[in-house]
Amino acid sequence: MQTLQGIAVSPGVAIGEALVIDNEGFRIPRRFVVRDVVEDEVERLTKALDAVGAEIARDRDAVTEKLGDDYGAIFTAHLQMLRDRRMNDELVALIREQHHSPEYAVSQVLRRYAKIFQELRDNYLAERANDIFDLERRLLRRLLGERREELGHITSPVVVLAHNLTPSETAMLDPQFVRAFVTEIGGAGGHTAIVAKGLEIPAVVGTGKFLTDVSGGETVIVDGDLGRVILQPDDETVARYQRELEEHRTLAVRLEELRELPAETLDATRVTLTANIEFPREVQACLDRGADGVGLYRTEFLYLAVSSEPTEEEHYEAYCQVLKTMGDRPVVFRTLDLGADKLGQSPSHEEERNPFLGLRSIRLSLKNLPQFRTQLRAILRASVLGSAKIMFPLISSLQELRQAKMVVADTMEDLEEAGVDFDREIQIGMMVEVPATVVLLDKFLAEVDFISIGTNDLIQYALAVDRSNNEVADRYRASDPAVLRLLDMSLTAARQAGVPASVCGQMSGETTYTMLLLGLGLRALSVPPAVIPEIKKICRSVTLTRCREVAERAMAMESSQEIETYLREELRKVVPELAPC
Ligand code: PEP
Ligand code: MG
User: Fold this and answer.
1) Number of separate domains in the chain
2) Which of 78, 100, 286, 504 is catalytic?
3) pTM of the model as a whole
4) Which range of residues forms the domain containing residue 65?
């Protein structure tokens, strides 16, 4: 049994069989071969070893010719490893005696060898582990074929273990089969985490290296509440987590009963609870959980699932689906928040050293006007089907806001001329995600119909901490006193200007912060659909008077740790079952 600590990014507990997706996306199933085909499988292995041997020899010759013997010798060493008698015997024995598939035997044996090298004190030898991984990859590529295993085609219940998953790869996971996932890298505020929550797949990221210790097929427990991953748990641990799973289910059933009830505090203040979605398919979950609307539709996810630029019709169809399903409940369309942080580097752009400070979000939209207009036309055309609102992300200057509004006005004019119907009164709002915007918020508020505070970005820009980097994840804290003050400033300014405000960052969906946010004056929260029942339960269990006292005390504290502990204690007093440990 081995326990890893990572960052909890999507709640829930799961127990399942490990499916390892390594850097190259190989899936290494624990497959056993039947007795009759054992010799065929040994032959398949032998052929793969020969083919990889020939491939390495070719590489050696090419490198020797270009760079000389010293460099070619690297590949000679690879060849020697590949032909190592002991390793070959071990592989064959696993197939003949244990009936392992050749793929499984290769990953088991080579990973074990690599681990032995990694643990050696000698740096030079430790680095040889990479050579073994290289061999493993070459062999698996031969055995499994070149194709990258399609994450979207997983059709048996598994726990996915990977070095990293991009947001679009995560979006391909089918929650019906993928019980949970764990990645070696990643941070709490990254978009992979956001998609996991949207899909309701328990997830832990940023565990550090562990893939050398697994090859697939082992039992894994993922505790998405505590950020814990247990490899090959003992029976007692499995039994404990099974009990916890049962408790989760019971709590979910109890919360389900709140569906038709309003999110109203004990002293009769109604709180609006809307949902954050990434894909149209999530709207049903919003209705099932009793959402008052969609407070944040991250429309850019349409781009992450396709390889070419979506057409206006593709945008339009997605938007119609969302609006029609939500009926007269409001839907906030956040315009494209694309950039290198989400899509990786686009080959057409020069590499950005700091994508989060670069050409992302509204900046990209204003630079790529045809793309922006295409999206706006689709939103406006769909707006007649329900209650649509437009929201601009990452606004950091008044000029930017005015420019964006101008593009909307121009697009409206075009539609008008073309005789296309749309909602002429459509509300326009902006996200508050940059500290500079908070400082000048009174000016912005005079020019928008509503604001939504994006704490995921606000925290990273206020604290100078990359939201997706696990090296600095411990510094990324919603409970930082500076973050609280920025929230207070924003909500106070909105109240004074009479402009509705909500919070749509992950913070608003964390039970720890509900009392604080209500106490700071927030009356609208937008959260992942899965947590609506929990947040509603808290709203219905507290008084605003108490929340105000809690907020006041928290605001006077000086450290994030102190604030977090205090908020959890206060929550425990009112709804103990929803207070994080
Ligand atoms: C935010 O930054 O808080 C937010 C909601 O936007 P995103 O997470 O998509 O950047
Ligand atoms: Mg944001």
Assistant:
1) 3
2) 504
3) 0.76
4) 34-139
